[in-house]
Amino acid sequence: MSDDDDLILSDLNDDELVDQMKDDLYDGMKEEIEEAVRILLERNWTPYDILTKSLVAGMQIVGDDFRDGILFVPEVLLAANAMKGGMAILKPLLVETGAPKMGKMVIGTVKGDIHDIGKNLVAMMMEGAGFEIVDLGINNPAEDYIGALQSEDAQILGMSALLTTTMPYMKVVIDQLTEMGKRDDYIVLVGGAPLNAEFGKAIGADAYCDDAAIAVQTAKELMARKHNVAG
Amino acid sequence: MHLPADDILRDTGYVAGSAQPSVLVIACGALAREILALIAVNGWSHVRLTCLPAILHNHPNKITQAVEDAVQTHARDGLEIFVAYADCGTGGDLAKACARMGVKMIAGPHCYAFFDGLTAFAARDEVTSFYLTDFLARQFDAFVWQPLGLDRHPQLLDMYFGNYEKLVYLAQSEDAALTAQAQAAAARLGLAFERRFTGYGDLSRALEAAI
Question: Where exactly are the structural domains of chain A?
């Protein structure tokens, strides 16, 4: 959005800087994002406010424009990479300062599948929204998912697949949870290019998530519902 | 045999074959040359070929609707229709649509699998391989490099291909120049290279059974 190379970030007031960060995130400018995060920290912003008001808000715009066909995958990846730079600074500080905790999610790409771009975006946006993420990476058998859910005491399972040939494996994991009598202990979210809501329903997932923003929104809603039931 | 230009097959689509057909093959543009060769070799003078733009390969969510539209357009012609697509990333939607419309299609997940042979492809279980066919080797820039933004943002290479180990070129033809192109593509992606001659694989068998 911005092409002003001479802009001095530290000269901007807070509102201007946050707006500039959204522009820089949109343009995938990692170094500028890292610099702006440090400036806001020096101005005694809380890590949580920096995260939510600049990075997450900026990625929301990126996500909306991706959904509307204005941005494409390469631009989204550049933006995500810039956000990752900011997150790397904030993450240890968020732990120290006690940001709100929304829940814990185990996430990974299913067995036989090595595609992780979508999974990584979801993990990052979930983390930005206050969820604790246990990222199992790629090519995960059912026992890895289930083991991590139990050992990490997580509430949410996220499974990703890019291939028509690997997406059925999600049902194997869900069926295994069911056989163990554990299915209702977890919220199961699934996503990936060849999936749709009908598939998610057919395999017994709680929801299919079309993109990272929807995953965050769905996780929040289902966690709230779970708490309501528990309460 | 007149061979259509790749950019036409990629972006526009293509029609060829019998002027008075009894069978219509609706195919991905990426298969045009191979299907035209099979029509010529087998003397299928009753077959007409309609190719949809091959670039749909990069937008699998648009394939089912495009095929449905093509079938509906030609349904009134009274021809027997065969859909020369595999699942191609439609997540089973294309198979459902074909079943609903009463037309047959190629079995399997994608063209890599049916060129290699469905059984052999499944048995190999090459999780970390990235595939090119003859068409995709010729069109590597248009189908891979540019759409992924690697021409503008080479730093994204690892995010896209970091988990891959090998580029497998599934060759339909003996073509040293094309092999060199595929090998160069592997080098650009930072992957090991393997050439595997497949010929037309299960594409021949699927068309012979349908025609």
Answer: 3-97, 104-230
The residue range of the domain holding B97 is 5-111+200-210
- B11 lies in the same domain as B106: yes
Whether residue B90 and residue A194 make contact (CB cut-off 8 A), yes or no, is yes
CB contact B149 to A (< 8 Å): yes
Q: What are the tokens at B56? A: 């749909």
- Are B49 and B120 part of one and the same domain? no
Distance from B91 to chain A by nearest Cα, in Å?
5
Residues B125 and B190 in one domain: yes
From chain B, pick out residues whose CB is under 8 angstroms from the CB of A72. 147, 149
pLDDT in tens, A19-33: 999 999 999 999 999
Domain A3-97 matches domain A104-230 at the CATH topology level: no
Minimal Cα–Cα distance from B148 to chain A, Å?
6
Which chain A residues have a beta carbon less than 8 Å from that of B89? 163-164, 193-194
Distance, in angstroms, between A11 CA and closest chain B CA? 30
ipTM of model:
0.85
Per-residue pLDDT reduced to its tens digit, A48-104: 999 999 999 999 999 999 999 999 999 999 999 999 999 999 999 988 887 778 999
CATH code linked to domain A3-97? 1.10.1240.10
Structural domain total, chain B: 2
Retrieve residue B194's tokens: 């393997």
User: What's the CA gap between A27 and A6, in Å, rounded?
Assistant: 16
Does residue B122 sit in the same domain as residue B191? yes
CA distance A158 to A144: 12
- Kindly determine whether residue A164 and residue B127, on different chains, have CB atoms separated by under 8 Å: no
